[in-house]
Amino acid sequence: MKDLTTKYIGLTLANPVIAASSGLTASVESIQTLEKNGAAAVVLKSIFEEEILLEVNQQLEEAKKNPIIYSGLSETLDYIDLHIREDSLNDYLNLIRDAKNAVSIPVIASINCVSFEDWTYFTKKIEEADADALELNLFMNPADFQNKEFEKTYFRIIEKVLATVEIPVAIKISKYFTRMGLSVKALSESGVSGIVMFNRFYTPDIDLDTISLSNGKLFTTAEDLPETLRWIAIMSNKVNCDLAASTGIHSGDDVIKMLLAGASATQVASTLYKNGPGQITRILNRVEKWMDEKGFDSIDQFRGKVSGEYSDNPASFERMQFMKHFSEIR
Length: 330
Ligand SMILES: Cc1cc2nc3c(=O)[nH]c(=O)nc-3n(C[C@H](O)[C@H](O)[C@H](O)COP(=O)(O)O)c2cc1C
Fold this sequence. Notes:
Blueprint: E1 6-8, E2 11-13, E3 17-19, H1 28-36, E4 41-43, E5 47-48, H2 49-65, H3 74-102, E6 107-113, H4 122-128, E7 133-138, H5 150-162, E8 169-173, H6 180-188, E9 194-197, E10 204-207, E11 212-215, H7 225-235, E12 242-246, H8 252-261, E13 265-268, H9 270-275, H10 278-294, H11 314-327
Parallel strand pairs: 3-4, 3-13, 4-6, 5-6, 6-7, 7-8, 8-9, 9-12, 12-13
Antiparallel strand pairs: 1-2, 10-11
Helix pairs in contact: 2-3, 7-8, 8-10
The structure holds flavin mononucleotide.
Protein backbone atom coordinates (compact mmCIF):
# COMPACT_ATOMS: atom_id res chain seq x y z
CA MET A 1 0.00 0.00 0.00
CA LYS A 2 1.54 3.29 -1.12
CA ASP A 3 1.19 6.62 0.63
CA LEU A 4 -0.66 8.76 -1.89
CA THR A 5 -1.40 11.62 0.49
CA THR A 6 -0.58 15.12 -0.57
CA LYS A 7 -0.95 18.56 0.95
CA TYR A 8 -2.80 21.15 -1.09
CA ILE A 9 -3.75 24.67 0.08
CA GLY A 10 -3.51 23.56 3.69
CA LEU A 11 -5.75 20.51 3.18
CA THR A 12 -4.44 16.98 3.56
CA LEU A 13 -5.75 15.00 0.61
CA ALA A 14 -5.83 11.19 0.55
CA ASN A 15 -4.44 11.29 -3.00
CA PRO A 16 -3.62 13.88 -5.66
CA VAL A 17 -6.80 13.56 -7.77
CA ILE A 18 -9.45 16.25 -7.26
CA ALA A 19 -12.72 16.28 -9.20
CA ALA A 20 -12.60 19.64 -10.99
CA SER A 21 -15.48 22.08 -11.01
CA SER A 22 -18.06 20.88 -13.54
CA GLY A 23 -21.61 19.57 -13.84
CA LEU A 24 -20.35 16.42 -12.07
CA THR A 25 -19.86 18.36 -8.85
CA ALA A 26 -23.22 20.12 -8.91
CA SER A 27 -25.24 17.62 -6.88
CA VAL A 28 -24.72 15.75 -3.63
CA GLU A 29 -25.41 12.36 -5.27
CA SER A 30 -22.78 12.92 -7.90
CA ILE A 31 -20.27 14.14 -5.31
CA GLN A 32 -20.89 10.97 -3.27
CA THR A 33 -20.21 8.86 -6.36
CA LEU A 34 -16.95 10.75 -6.96
CA GLU A 35 -15.90 10.14 -3.36
CA LYS A 36 -16.71 6.41 -3.64
CA ASN A 37 -14.52 6.21 -6.71
CA GLY A 38 -11.57 7.77 -4.93
CA ALA A 39 -11.75 11.54 -5.53
CA ALA A 40 -9.60 13.20 -2.87
CA ALA A 41 -11.67 16.40 -2.93
CA VAL A 42 -14.28 18.09 -5.08
CA VAL A 43 -14.45 21.60 -6.45
CA LEU A 44 -18.13 22.45 -6.69
CA LYS A 45 -19.65 23.67 -9.94
CA SER A 46 -19.01 27.41 -10.04
CA ILE A 47 -21.52 29.98 -9.18
CA PHE A 48 -21.25 32.70 -11.82
CA GLU A 49 -21.10 36.37 -11.01
CA GLU A 50 -23.21 37.26 -14.07
CA GLU A 51 -25.72 34.52 -13.34
CA ILE A 52 -26.45 36.07 -9.97
CA LEU A 53 -26.72 39.58 -11.29
CA LEU A 54 -28.92 38.53 -14.19
CA GLU A 55 -31.30 36.74 -11.88
CA VAL A 56 -31.46 39.71 -9.55
CA ASN A 57 -32.17 42.09 -12.43
CA GLN A 58 -34.83 39.89 -14.02
CA GLN A 59 -36.66 39.41 -10.77
CA LEU A 60 -36.42 43.07 -9.98
CA GLU A 61 -38.03 43.90 -13.32
CA GLU A 62 -40.88 41.50 -12.46
CA ALA A 63 -41.21 42.99 -9.00
CA LYS A 64 -41.38 46.50 -10.42
CA LYS A 65 -44.51 45.49 -12.37
CA ASN A 66 -46.25 44.74 -9.10
CA PRO A 67 -47.11 47.95 -7.23
CA ILE A 68 -47.86 46.05 -4.02
CA ILE A 69 -44.35 44.75 -3.58
CA TYR A 70 -42.59 47.54 -5.44
CA SER A 71 -43.39 51.00 -4.19
CA GLY A 72 -40.77 52.82 -6.21
CA LEU A 73 -38.98 53.83 -3.03
CA SER A 74 -35.30 53.13 -3.07
CA GLU A 75 -35.31 51.35 0.33
CA THR A 76 -37.90 48.93 -1.02
CA LEU A 77 -35.78 48.35 -4.06
CA ASP A 78 -32.77 47.69 -1.87
CA TYR A 79 -34.76 45.27 0.25
CA ILE A 80 -36.11 43.35 -2.73
CA ASP A 81 -32.67 43.32 -4.31
CA LEU A 82 -31.04 41.90 -1.20
CA HIS A 83 -33.86 39.49 -0.48
CA ILE A 84 -33.91 38.00 -3.97
CA ARG A 85 -30.17 37.83 -4.11
CA GLU A 86 -30.01 35.92 -0.87
CA ASP A 87 -32.79 33.59 -1.97
CA SER A 88 -31.14 32.69 -5.25
CA LEU A 89 -27.81 32.03 -3.58
CA ASN A 90 -29.24 29.84 -0.85
CA ASP A 91 -29.25 26.91 -3.24
CA TYR A 92 -25.50 27.16 -3.55
CA LEU A 93 -24.99 27.44 0.19
CA ASN A 94 -27.28 24.44 0.70
CA LEU A 95 -25.21 22.46 -1.78
CA ILE A 96 -22.11 23.20 0.27
CA ARG A 97 -23.81 22.25 3.56
CA ASP A 98 -25.41 19.11 2.15
CA ALA A 99 -22.20 17.99 0.46
CA LYS A 100 -20.25 18.55 3.68
CA ASN A 101 -22.76 16.38 5.57
CA ALA A 102 -22.73 13.66 2.93
CA VAL A 103 -19.01 13.15 2.27
CA SER A 104 -15.83 13.23 4.29
CA ILE A 105 -13.53 14.59 1.56
CA PRO A 106 -12.86 18.34 1.39
CA VAL A 107 -15.47 20.40 -0.43
CA ILE A 108 -14.06 23.40 -2.25
CA ALA A 109 -16.56 26.05 -3.35
CA SER A 110 -16.02 27.89 -6.61
CA ILE A 111 -16.91 31.34 -7.91
CA ASN A 112 -16.45 32.27 -11.54
CA CYS A 113 -15.72 35.98 -11.51
CA VAL A 114 -14.73 38.82 -13.80
CA SER A 115 -14.83 41.87 -11.54
CA PHE A 116 -14.23 42.95 -7.97
CA GLU A 117 -17.62 44.59 -7.59
CA ASP A 118 -20.67 43.44 -5.76
CA TRP A 119 -20.26 39.75 -5.20
CA THR A 120 -17.38 39.42 -2.76
CA TYR A 121 -19.63 39.59 0.34
CA PHE A 122 -20.88 36.16 -0.71
CA THR A 123 -17.51 34.55 0.05
CA LYS A 124 -18.17 35.04 3.77
CA LYS A 125 -21.41 33.08 3.44
CA ILE A 126 -19.53 30.32 1.66
CA GLU A 127 -17.13 30.17 4.58
CA GLU A 128 -20.01 30.11 7.07
CA ALA A 129 -21.64 27.27 5.10
CA ASP A 130 -18.52 25.28 6.05
CA ALA A 131 -16.70 25.02 2.73
CA ASP A 132 -13.16 23.78 3.28
CA ALA A 133 -11.72 26.22 0.78
CA LEU A 134 -12.67 28.55 -2.04
CA GLU A 135 -11.51 28.48 -5.64
CA LEU A 136 -11.90 31.68 -7.64
CA ASN A 137 -12.10 31.03 -11.34
CA LEU A 138 -10.72 34.37 -12.51
CA PHE A 139 -12.28 34.45 -15.92
CA MET A 140 -10.89 37.62 -17.45
CA ASN A 141 -10.94 36.88 -21.13
CA PRO A 142 -8.09 38.36 -23.18
CA ALA A 143 -10.64 39.03 -25.93
CA ASP A 144 -12.06 41.78 -23.69
CA PHE A 145 -11.30 45.08 -25.44
CA GLN A 146 -12.91 47.17 -22.69
CA ASN A 147 -11.05 46.07 -19.59
CA LYS A 148 -7.67 47.79 -19.79
CA GLU A 149 -6.88 46.81 -16.21
CA PHE A 150 -6.81 43.13 -17.07
CA GLU A 151 -4.03 42.04 -14.72
CA LYS A 152 -4.78 44.57 -11.99
CA THR A 153 -8.29 43.13 -11.72
CA TYR A 154 -6.81 39.80 -10.59
CA PHE A 155 -5.05 41.43 -7.68
CA ARG A 156 -8.03 43.57 -6.66
CA ILE A 157 -10.34 40.55 -6.57
CA ILE A 158 -7.83 38.59 -4.51
CA GLU A 159 -7.33 41.47 -2.09
CA LYS A 160 -11.06 41.86 -1.53
CA VAL A 161 -11.71 38.15 -1.04
CA LEU A 162 -8.74 37.59 1.27
CA ALA A 163 -9.98 40.45 3.43
CA THR A 164 -13.35 38.68 3.75
CA VAL A 165 -12.54 35.02 4.47
CA GLU A 166 -10.10 32.92 6.45
CA ILE A 167 -10.50 29.63 4.60
CA PRO A 168 -7.79 28.87 2.04
CA VAL A 169 -8.32 30.60 -1.29
CA ALA A 170 -7.02 29.21 -4.58
CA ILE A 171 -7.26 30.98 -7.91
CA LYS A 172 -7.84 29.27 -11.23
CA ILE A 173 -6.19 31.24 -14.01
CA SER A 174 -6.02 31.24 -17.77
CA LYS A 175 -2.87 30.77 -19.80
CA TYR A 176 -3.24 34.24 -21.33
CA PHE A 177 -0.88 36.67 -19.66
CA THR A 178 1.51 39.10 -21.27
CA ARG A 179 4.36 37.74 -19.18
CA MET A 180 3.09 34.45 -17.87
CA GLY A 181 6.06 33.56 -15.64
CA LEU A 182 6.26 36.92 -13.87
CA SER A 183 2.49 37.20 -13.55
CA VAL A 184 2.05 33.77 -11.97
CA LYS A 185 4.95 34.46 -9.60
CA ALA A 186 3.38 37.77 -8.53
CA LEU A 187 -0.03 36.14 -8.07
CA SER A 188 1.55 33.43 -5.92
CA GLU A 189 2.85 36.18 -3.64
CA SER A 190 -0.57 37.83 -3.25
CA GLY A 191 -1.62 35.70 -0.28
CA VAL A 192 -3.51 32.99 -2.14
CA SER A 193 -2.86 29.44 -0.99
CA GLY A 194 -2.88 27.88 -4.43
CA ILE A 195 -3.01 28.46 -8.17
CA VAL A 196 -4.85 26.13 -10.51
CA MET A 197 -3.32 26.11 -13.98
CA PHE A 198 -5.39 26.40 -16.15
CA ASN A 199 -9.03 27.21 -16.69
CA ARG A 200 -10.60 26.91 -20.10
CA PHE A 201 -12.58 29.40 -22.10
CA TYR A 202 -15.29 28.65 -24.61
CA THR A 203 -13.63 27.43 -27.81
CA PRO A 204 -15.33 28.25 -31.10
CA ASP A 205 -15.18 26.43 -34.40
CA ILE A 206 -16.43 27.32 -37.88
CA ASP A 207 -19.12 25.30 -39.59
CA LEU A 208 -18.16 25.06 -43.27
CA ASP A 209 -21.69 24.13 -44.36
CA THR A 210 -23.51 27.00 -42.73
CA ILE A 211 -20.45 29.29 -42.94
CA SER A 212 -20.96 30.46 -39.39
CA LEU A 213 -19.43 30.15 -35.94
CA SER A 214 -20.19 26.90 -34.14
CA ASN A 215 -19.28 25.42 -30.80
CA GLY A 216 -15.82 23.92 -30.47
CA LYS A 217 -14.93 20.98 -28.28
CA LEU A 218 -16.33 20.99 -24.76
CA PHE A 219 -13.93 18.35 -23.49
CA THR A 220 -10.16 18.38 -23.58
CA THR A 221 -7.97 15.64 -25.01
CA ALA A 222 -4.50 14.39 -24.14
CA GLU A 223 -3.19 16.95 -26.64
CA ASP A 224 -4.08 19.70 -24.17
CA LEU A 225 -1.68 18.27 -21.59
CA PRO A 226 1.76 19.58 -22.70
CA GLU A 227 1.01 23.26 -22.13
CA THR A 228 -0.20 22.57 -18.58
CA LEU A 229 2.78 20.30 -17.94
CA ARG A 230 5.22 22.88 -19.25
CA TRP A 231 3.95 25.65 -17.00
CA ILE A 232 3.72 23.48 -13.90
CA ALA A 233 7.34 22.44 -14.47
CA ILE A 234 8.48 26.01 -15.11
CA MET A 235 6.65 27.54 -12.15
CA SER A 236 6.69 24.92 -9.39
CA ASN A 237 10.08 26.02 -8.06
CA LYS A 238 9.31 29.68 -8.35
CA VAL A 239 5.95 30.19 -6.71
CA ASN A 240 5.05 30.98 -3.16
CA CYS A 241 1.96 28.76 -3.02
CA ASP A 242 0.76 25.32 -4.11
CA LEU A 243 0.03 24.51 -7.74
CA ALA A 244 -2.78 22.30 -8.97
CA ALA A 245 -2.61 21.11 -12.57
CA SER A 246 -5.79 21.22 -14.64
CA THR A 247 -6.54 20.83 -18.37
CA GLY A 248 -5.62 17.78 -20.37
CA ILE A 249 -5.12 15.31 -17.51
CA HIS A 250 -6.79 12.09 -18.60
CA SER A 251 -4.79 9.14 -17.23
CA GLY A 252 -2.64 7.91 -14.38
CA ASP A 253 0.46 8.67 -16.46
CA ASP A 254 -0.70 12.28 -16.81
CA VAL A 255 -1.12 12.60 -13.05
CA ILE A 256 2.36 11.16 -12.43
CA LYS A 257 3.87 13.64 -14.92
CA MET A 258 2.21 16.59 -13.18
CA LEU A 259 3.54 15.43 -9.81
CA LEU A 260 7.03 14.99 -11.27
CA ALA A 261 6.71 18.52 -12.64
CA GLY A 262 5.94 19.75 -9.11
CA ALA A 263 2.15 19.95 -8.81
CA SER A 264 0.69 19.42 -5.35
CA ALA A 265 -2.52 18.04 -6.83
CA THR A 266 -4.35 17.54 -10.11
CA GLN A 267 -7.90 18.34 -11.18
CA VAL A 268 -9.84 16.27 -13.69
CA ALA A 269 -13.13 16.82 -15.50
CA SER A 270 -13.18 15.73 -19.17
CA THR A 271 -11.85 12.25 -18.46
CA LEU A 272 -14.66 11.71 -15.93
CA TYR A 273 -17.26 12.70 -18.51
CA LYS A 274 -15.66 10.45 -21.13
CA ASN A 275 -14.83 7.42 -18.97
CA GLY A 276 -17.13 7.71 -15.96
CA PRO A 277 -16.18 8.28 -12.30
CA GLY A 278 -14.44 4.86 -12.20
CA GLN A 279 -11.63 6.57 -14.10
CA ILE A 280 -10.40 8.01 -10.79
CA THR A 281 -9.87 4.48 -9.45
CA ARG A 282 -8.02 3.50 -12.64
CA ILE A 283 -5.82 6.60 -12.39
CA LEU A 284 -4.96 5.86 -8.76
CA ASN A 285 -4.20 2.20 -9.52
CA ARG A 286 -1.79 3.29 -12.24
CA VAL A 287 -0.07 5.80 -9.92
CA GLU A 288 0.40 3.09 -7.28
CA LYS A 289 1.70 0.59 -9.84
CA TRP A 290 4.20 3.09 -11.23
CA MET A 291 5.38 4.00 -7.71
CA ASP A 292 5.85 0.30 -7.03
CA GLU A 293 7.89 -0.20 -10.21
CA LYS A 294 10.09 2.80 -9.41
CA GLY A 295 10.45 2.01 -5.70
CA PHE A 296 8.67 5.07 -4.34
CA ASP A 297 6.59 4.73 -1.17
CA SER A 298 5.17 8.23 -1.03
CA ILE A 299 4.42 11.07 -3.41
CA ASP A 300 6.75 13.38 -1.55
CA GLN A 301 9.66 11.17 -2.65
CA PHE A 302 9.22 12.13 -6.30
CA ARG A 303 7.18 15.32 -6.45
CA GLY A 304 9.02 17.98 -8.46
CA LYS A 305 11.85 15.58 -9.39
CA VAL A 306 11.79 16.74 -13.00
CA SER A 307 11.03 20.44 -12.51
CA GLY A 308 14.65 20.99 -11.42
CA GLU A 309 15.71 20.94 -15.05
CA TYR A 310 13.89 24.23 -15.43
CA SER A 311 15.02 25.80 -12.21
CA ASP A 312 17.64 28.37 -13.26
CA ASN A 313 16.60 29.91 -16.51
CA PRO A 314 13.56 28.32 -18.15
CA ALA A 315 13.82 30.48 -21.26
CA SER A 316 17.40 29.52 -22.04
CA PHE A 317 16.71 25.88 -21.13
CA GLU A 318 13.83 25.78 -23.60
CA ARG A 319 15.86 27.59 -26.28
CA MET A 320 18.63 25.03 -25.94
CA GLN A 321 16.16 22.14 -26.21
CA PHE A 322 14.54 23.78 -29.21
CA MET A 323 17.89 24.16 -30.99
CA LYS A 324 18.90 20.57 -30.28
CA HIS A 325 15.54 19.08 -31.10
CA PHE A 326 14.63 20.94 -34.27
CA SER A 327 18.08 21.16 -35.83
CA GLU A 328 18.11 17.36 -36.12
CA ILE A 329 15.05 17.40 -38.38
CA ARG A 330 15.70 17.88 -42.11
C1 LIG B 1 -19.10 20.37 -18.65
C2 LIG B 1 -18.05 21.17 -17.95
C3 LIG B 1 -18.43 22.14 -17.01
C4 LIG B 1 -17.47 22.91 -16.38
N1 LIG B 1 -17.85 23.85 -15.44
C5 LIG B 1 -16.91 24.57 -14.78
C6 LIG B 1 -17.27 25.48 -13.78
O1 LIG B 1 -18.44 25.68 -13.44
N2 LIG B 1 -16.27 26.17 -13.16
C7 LIG B 1 -14.96 25.99 -13.47
O2 LIG B 1 -14.08 26.61 -12.83
N3 LIG B 1 -14.58 25.12 -14.41
C8 LIG B 1 -15.52 24.41 -15.08
N4 LIG B 1 -15.14 23.52 -16.04
C9 LIG B 1 -13.71 23.41 -16.37
C10 LIG B 1 -13.06 22.25 -15.61
O3 LIG B 1 -13.10 22.47 -14.22
C11 LIG B 1 -11.59 22.07 -16.04
O4 LIG B 1 -10.82 23.19 -15.60
C12 LIG B 1 -11.44 21.95 -17.55
O5 LIG B 1 -12.45 21.10 -18.08
C13 LIG B 1 -10.08 21.37 -17.90
O6 LIG B 1 -9.87 20.15 -17.25
P1 LIG B 1 -10.03 18.74 -18.03
O7 LIG B 1 -8.99 18.71 -19.09
O8 LIG B 1 -9.83 17.70 -16.97
O9 LIG B 1 -11.41 18.72 -18.59
C14 LIG B 1 -16.10 22.73 -16.69
C15 LIG B 1 -15.73 21.75 -17.61
C16 LIG B 1 -16.67 20.98 -18.24
C17 LIG B 1 -16.24 19.94 -19.23
